[in-house]
TrEMBL record:
The keyword Chaperone does not apply. It is found in: Cytoplasm. The lineage of its organism: Bacteria, Bacillati, Bacillota, Bacilli, Bacillales. Its cofactor is Zn(2+). It comes from Melghiribacillus thermohalophilus. One of its GO terms (molecular function) is metal ion binding. It comes from the Bacteria. InterPro entries: Ala-tRNA-synth_IIc_core, Ala-tRNA-synth_IIc_N, Alanyl-tRNA_Editing_Enzymes, Thr/Ala-tRNA-synth_IIc_edit, Transl_B-barrel_sf, tRNA_SAD. Keywords: Hydrolase, Metal-binding, Zinc. Pfam families: tRNA-synt_2c, tRNA_SAD. This is Ala-tRNA(Pro) hydrolase. GO terms for biological process: alanyl-tRNA aminoacylation.
Length: 240
């Protein structure tokens, strides 16, 4: 099992670790900052550095509890100590857009009791699907985004804690739904809180205060049927 340093320190950009195994272009480490694709969030990219040589990590996946780094020129690496560095601009964009989806998820839940059924997070945009949402008009969409931006500007802290599955199941209907989807062997759940606004079970990476998200901008609303409505959106910085 690879230790996932990004779960406890979302802001670290470089780390020391050990290569345990190399299998073709696949490199296995004892611990890593590289986020593997999952939960709708795209993987990190970056480099592994050994004896002054930098090898590019171009894809990262999960495989049976391990994080697998796909590395160009992996044959230049050997088992043993390594340094790693992630592409911070890309990761920070992913963190901002990931946290944005928690905020809009909370707003949609409180307004319509709509639950998130899927999402995709990129460094510069994101999309999120909800069930239980009516056809909503432009005015209402503008209203949703005004509320999202109000919450962002209130600058709520984003914190996390590990709790037992049992404890998480008793916290709220929303979390219960998400946790029911986890395999039965998962006993510990990571809860991510945005102040008093939202609590969700989540293993992704988030910013530490909502204002870091930037300004939420609506791109598109797509009705994909009665039980599936999609928002496409992005968070832009520099309006402050
Ligand atoms: Zn999350």
């Amino acid at each position: 099992m690879t230790k996932r340093i990004y779960l406890t320190d979302c802001y670290a950009q470089a780390f020391n670790g050990t290569i345990e195994k190399i299998d073709g272009e696949k490199v296995y480490l004892d611990q890593t900052l590289f986020y593997p694709t999952g939960g709708g969030q795209e993987h990190d990219t970056g480099v592994l550095i050994q004896h002054g040589r930098e090898c590019e990590v171009y894809k990262v996946k999960q495989e049976k509890g391990n994080v697998v780094h796909y590395v160009k020129n992996a044959e230049e690496l050997n088992p043993g100590p390594i340094k790693g560095r992630i592409n911070w601009d890309r990761r920070y964009g992913l963190m901002r857009h990931h946290t944005l989806l928690h905020v809009i998820g909370a707003v949609i839940y409180h307004r319509y009791e709509g639950l998130c059924t899927g999402n995709k997070i990129y460094p510069d945009r994101a999309r999120i699907d909800f069930n239980n949402l009516p056809e909503i008009d432009d005015e209402e969409i503008a209203d949703v985004f005004a509320e999202v931006n109000d919450i962002i500007q209130q600058n709520h802290p984003v914190t996390f804690e590990e709790v037992s599955r049992e404890e998480a199941e008793h916290q709220s209907e929303y979390i219960k739904t998400a946790i029911n989807l986890l395999p039965p062997h998962v006993k510990q759940v990571r809860l991510v809180r945005i102040g008093e606004v939202d609590t969700q079970a989540c293993g992704g990476t988030h910013v530490k205060e909502t204002r870091e998200i930037g300004h939420a901008q609506f791109i598109k609303f797509v009705s994909k049927g009665k039980q599936n409505k999609r928002f496409e959106l992005r968070a832009i910085r520099s309006l402050a």
